[in-house]
Automatic annotation (TrEMBL):
Belongs to the citrate synthase family. Gene3D superfamilies: 2.20.28.60, Citrate Synthase, domain 1 (1.10.580.10), Cytochrome P450-Terp, domain 2 (1.10.230.10). GO terms for molecular function: citrate synthase activity. It comes from Halodurantibacterium flavum. Pathway: Carbohydrate metabolism; tricarboxylic acid cycle; isocitrate from oxaloacetate: step 1/2. This is Citrate synthase. It catalyses: oxaloacetate + acetyl-CoA + H2O = citrate + CoA + H(+). PROSITE patterns: CITRATE_SYNTHASE. NCBIfam families: cit_synth_I (TIGR01798), PRK05614.1 (NF004126). It holds the Pfam family Citrate_synt. Keywords: Acyltransferase, Transferase, Tricarboxylic acid cycle.
Amino acid sequence: GDVFTYDPGFTSTAACESTITFIDGDKGELLHRGYPIEQLAEKSHFLEVCYLLLYGELPTAAQMDDFEMRVTRHTMVHEQMHNFFRGFRRDAHPMATMVGVVGAMSAFYHDSTDIADPWQREVAAIRMIAKLPTIAAMAYKYSIGQPFVYPRNDLDYASNFLRMCFAVPAEEYEVDPILSRAMDRIMMLHADHEQNASTSTVRLAGSSGANPFACIAAGIACLWGPAHGGANQACLEMLREIGTVDRIPEFIARAKDKDDPFRLMGFGHRVYKNFDPRAKVMKQSADEVLGLMGIEDNPTLQVAKELERIALEDDYFISKKLYPNVDFYSGIILDAMGFPTSMFTPIFALSRTVGWISQWKEMISDPAQKIGRPRQLYIGETRRDYTEVEER
Ligand code: CMC
């Protein structure tokens, strides 16, 4: 019979060729289209990174203006979608709402679901980059019982998102430029990360010819798990549960205990066996933002820093090469901005949308593309005959 490679978790299988993102896990290096993430986080901004991921080059000023215009033109969702939101339980987790609403986009935007048409693919990409912040903010507003806030297209991408989340009717809302820069940086740091579980899910769903909205909804569903994007929520909840620096050793001991399923959230990575370069930028950003807000004595940040210090000196973490990952410090910044933990993963999702859609577009135009169809090693019963119920 056929011989297959058994590779659970795809630890040694490359499922595609890609020109988008490069990771060197041993060095802790992350490049988008060749540009180091540290340089992008410092000098670029989220929409420029979107352009880079989608089209392969940094935009000229004119290309950037045009792209920004194309994105902002699509920030509003169809008014009828408001009714769709109202079908959810009022206290639904925003991720649950997002999986549903993004999946339903294919029912609202028929004119960009024909994957054979490059123009429709482009419109679908722009629509999702433009609308995901609106949808995430609406999911949040719905979960707290506040009215939806329409997008404001004179604001930059991050500021518009913050405003849609935090503005309330009849009250002034000025976006704090410190928060908006921090939000933009969080978005940049999450924009793409090659063939992680959710991106592979998007590619697998797309390989059957499914429409792009359905594929991104599949990616959002996959991202939700605590081993993946859900780790940012789980991490802040863990840091809060630890609460004070003196309780850290107890939690370190639990993480090391083979019989205890507890893991240090925000630690470890399938590919990075060194510092996650995104975590380094995120830590610096947390320091900066909390400093500028005058809350650098935030107890959660203190616990996080001390936990990192202790873990990095511990033999268990050293020998298994477990370092802080992108989710370790992001929650602290989002918390300081006023987001509840339930919004952390939706923010990851809206930021990763550009990565998913860039990878989906790359796959669709790859001549080597085929439907994804892993094989298995069957270890069940061999052929046997049906028995009548009285005989069982
Ligand atoms: N705390 C304690 N032990 C750990 C941890 C951790 N966070 N992560 C891995 N280990 C141990 C694990 O028990 C295993 O030990 P042994 O070899 O003795 O069985 C060893 O390290 C290797 O772990 P693994 O589960 O085989 O590694 P993996 O590549 O399958 O998993 C991971 C990677 C990220 C799922 C895992 O490190 C983890 O669960 N981390 C916590 C959740 C988290 O922070 N996820 C976010 C990942 S980065 C952003 C994203 O993808 O969203």
